[in-house]
Each structure stands twice: as structure tokens, then as C-alpha cells.
Amino acid sequence: MAVQEADGKQTAMRIDMNSDMGESFGRWTLGDDEALLDVVSSANVACGFHAGDPSVMLRTLSYAASRGGG
Predict the structure, then answer these.
(1) Would you give the DSSP letter of residue 5?
(2) Is the dihedral of CA 7, 8, 9, 15 positive or negative?
(3) DSSP per-residue letters across 9-70
(4) By the 8 A CB rule, do 43 and 18 touch?
(5) Which residue would you say has higher pLDDT here, 43 or 3?
(6) Which residues of 16-36 are buried (b: 16+ CB within 10 A; e: fewer)?
(7) Residue 15 to residues 18, 19, 33, 50, 56, Cα–Cα distance (Å)
(8) Confidence of residue 29 (pLDDT cuts 50, 70, 90)
(9) Residue 62: CA atoms inside 13 Å, Cβ hemisphere, count?
(10) Which of 26, 45, 47, 55 is most buried per CB count within 10 Å?
(11) Contact 61, 68 (CB under 8 A)
């Protein structure tokens, strides 16, 4: 999809696909973080009240890092 500029030029539209991730806790699984990282362009790793456990958050960060996230 292109956006028409006022001067007549066209530029590509960029859309940020974002997802909350890392919310699983122990045996309780919420979502598929690894698969979502193939689709999204940015991610929020859970923290605060709905945070996953430390191993889930570390795994999610490792998935993101392996795909060039930083």
C-alpha cells in the first residue's frame, strides 16, 4: 500500500504490528510467543500484574533476540 504525498510522490506505508507476550506462568500457557514473533514487528514483554514467570519472560526475550530484536 502506498500513501500519496502532497507533492504527488508516493511513499510506502509502514504499519507496526505489536503484541503483548511473555504472559504464561508455569504450566499455564497463554498464546504462542515464538509463532507471534514471526508475524509482529514489535512486542511488549509482560511485566507488572499480568507478567509471566521469570523463565517464560527470559524465553520470550531469547526468541526475540534470535530474530534480531533488541
Answers:
(1) -
(2) positive
(3) -EEE-----EEEE---BTTB--S-HHHHTTT-SEEEE--GGG---HHHHHHHHHHHHHTT--
(4) yes
(5) 43
(6) eeeeebbbbbeeeeeeebeeb
(7) 9, 13, 20, 26, 27
(8) confident
(9) 6
(10) 45
(11) no
Environment class of 46 (CB within 10 Å of its CB; exposed 0-12, middle 13-18, buried 19+):
buried
The position carrying cell 531469547 is 62
Model confidence pLDDT, tens digit, residues 35-65 = 998 999 888 887 666 678 888 888 888 988 9
* Cα–Cα distance for residue pair 61/55, rounded to 1 Å: 10
Say which amino acid occupies 10.
Q
Q: Is 31 left (phi over 0), alpha (psi -120 to 50) or beta?
A: left
